[in-house]
């Protein structure tokens, strides 16, 4: 098998080659020549637009003649069935997203094809001893990928500001930057395990950039691996393909093992983890290295030998079998819930069958379908189609308040996506990809990349600056316009402007979580003996005066600003020890890590001896029952035995919906967004009763702010022009601070003094 195409017809043997013939013979076709000679030479680009296809543009073997199967085919030649396979994969992705609300496995096929093409290109360079030109590859690949991706990010950002609720804007800004720098998968992975993340059941319109991010990371990593292989090959005179097979085979085994393990233990994180996806790329690399050897054995002979005829028929059957497995994967397997563990072998090995089957030369093989003109055209625009279909789907669903599309609505969305993808390919992708002017100087390609990134970053920065400026403008008159819970007092006089905006700004509301100034330090710093979870200790204040320690879960965290505001005003130091989902208790249902955390908290409190410890005295179960926090009385008694006072707070109500989300969807007014406190939330707090300790310096206090959060057991979106709720279980830091007056009054009534 050779990488070189046959000389074009029409040149007499022995005559000098023209410049164009020399380019074809050496596989050095100038940028822009693909389309220029396509009609009369049959030469076509090895790869076209698709999330994985930038790799194909770096090879010297960018073109090869298509002669109805009379040429030997392989990874070094143009493979029209690969282009058709891309088209099938993108159609699966789009259709499964739009009509079935499922993941198809098509993205995994993209990953494999991208590595297959990239590896074939670099392996041939190593075998010829040609320079790898890695920087040139990076420039060429990202010059192609970044501009269309940046344009879609920019368009999605603009449309989202018009369509999405403001509470999702800040996350969208983060998604925009992460997608631009090929880090969206890690951002989504962190959100999947972040207890404090907002509810992301409604997907980001840029979520699909997770796979492009992994590909971008691999496009950067893989050439470095080839550089490493080149050093080893030249230093130790190793065989090229054997060395590469060892390298990528090892990556496949290690990454696959990690993928199986992480998918079984933390599937949500594994889905976006680059390390658990590397084997999908390295499997494509192994296929690219093994396939030429396989072709030599089974033969891609185009002769009248009966064995060759039988071989073609067998390969044609294998191609159809692979295509059937690909098409059935997303329907049979819960891809999103099971990938990328061992079950991902299904679509990947099926794609390997289709690729290995290759061009069969039969009239009925799967390659005949994959090489058809409609699928080739869809393959040409597959990158752009992947980019545009997801944000178009998400924004359409949000705009019409729908959870899905019917057949005709979906068909219209597909048609619109195809039209936009064609326009993006025709007017952005192709002009940049085929521009000889951009290819002539490396800095021009770099300028395209930098300019594309700069435009998106400038847009994101402008939106963020605008949001911050709007928040500062509202906060400037907050004392008059945003009283919050102070508006519930009997002597409150309303002097607010009639058109005053609520606080916090809706765009900032999802991030309105309470946090203190910095880590605990000095005498308040955790001792190494306190335990392995000392990183959660935070401090605000100099630590030289009296100290209050607030401990518990995220709901305690959001109740904390009321007390912290009072303590800081009186010169106290505030120490916080929060852990999401971990109530300070001795409940039997606590997870092992939560038990370890609470043991650490108790040891820390007894060692540092704060003046006051604050935590939840009641707890609300998932079925809304309010009970005394398990073990609270015993924990409080232990702390009080050491001369430390304890404040037990009543748990904030849990709701069965978010009042703010209800208000913001645009179809409800404030009155219809009121949520009644659940009937299982007791009329009177079920306070635990710590036994007296005999220590006069240590007292037990209680605080019940439920009426200031949900007056008359009605939970509304805002009180006193301040948004009360972040979600259905947590109040905002801004509103919590306005509760300090009511809390101070309750403490004073029980004899507590700050002096």
From TrEMBL:
<dbReference type="Pfam" id="PF19040">
    <property type="entry name" value="SGNH"/>
</dbReference>
<protein>
    <submittedName>
        <fullName>Acyltransferase</fullName>
    </submittedName>
</protein>
<keyword id="KW-0812">Transmembrane</keyword>
<keyword id="KW-0808">Transferase</keyword>
<feature type="transmembrane region" description="Helical">
    <location>
        <begin position="446"/>
        <end position="467"/>
    </location>
</feature>
<feature type="transmembrane region" description="Helical">
    <location>
        <begin position="407"/>
        <end position="425"/>
    </location>
</feature>
<feature type="transmembrane region" description="Helical">
    <location>
        <begin position="105"/>
        <end position="124"/>
    </location>
</feature>
<feature type="compositionally biased region" description="Polar residues">
    <location>
        <begin position="44"/>
        <end position="56"/>
    </location>
</feature>
<feature type="domain" description="SGNH">
    <location>
        <begin position="532"/>
        <end position="743"/>
    </location>
</feature>
<feature type="transmembrane region" description="Helical">
    <location>
        <begin position="278"/>
        <end position="294"/>
    </location>
</feature>
<feature type="region of interest" description="Disordered">
    <location>
        <begin position="1"/>
        <end position="78"/>
    </location>
</feature>
<feature type="transmembrane region" description="Helical">
    <location>
        <begin position="82"/>
        <end position="99"/>
    </location>
</feature>
<dbReference type="Pfam" id="PF01757">
    <property type="entry name" value="Acyl_transf_3"/>
</dbReference>
<keyword id="KW-0012">Acyltransferase</keyword>
<feature type="transmembrane region" description="Helical">
    <location>
        <begin position="381"/>
        <end position="401"/>
    </location>
</feature>
<keyword id="KW-1133">Transmembrane helix</keyword>
<dbReference type="InterPro" id="IPR002656">
    <property type="entry name" value="Acyl_transf_3_dom"/>
</dbReference>
<feature type="transmembrane region" description="Helical">
    <location>
        <begin position="240"/>
        <end position="258"/>
    </location>
</feature>
<dbReference type="InterPro" id="IPR043968">
    <property type="entry name" value="SGNH"/>
</dbReference>
<feature type="transmembrane region" description="Helical">
    <location>
        <begin position="314"/>
        <end position="333"/>
    </location>
</feature>
<feature type="compositionally biased region" description="Basic residues">
    <location>
        <begin position="26"/>
        <end position="38"/>
    </location>
</feature>
<feature type="transmembrane region" description="Helical">
    <location>
        <begin position="214"/>
        <end position="233"/>
    </location>
</feature>
<feature type="transmembrane region" description="Helical">
    <location>
        <begin position="339"/>
        <end position="360"/>
    </location>
</feature>
<feature type="transmembrane region" description="Helical">
    <location>
        <begin position="145"/>
        <end position="164"/>
    </location>
</feature>
<keyword id="KW-0472">Membrane</keyword>
<dbReference type="InterPro" id="IPR050879">
    <property type="entry name" value="Acyltransferase_3"/>
</dbReference>
<dbReference type="GO" id="GO:0016746">
    <property type="term" value="F:acyltransferase activity"/>
</dbReference>
<feature type="domain" description="Acyltransferase 3">
    <location>
        <begin position="81"/>
        <end position="426"/>
    </location>
</feature>
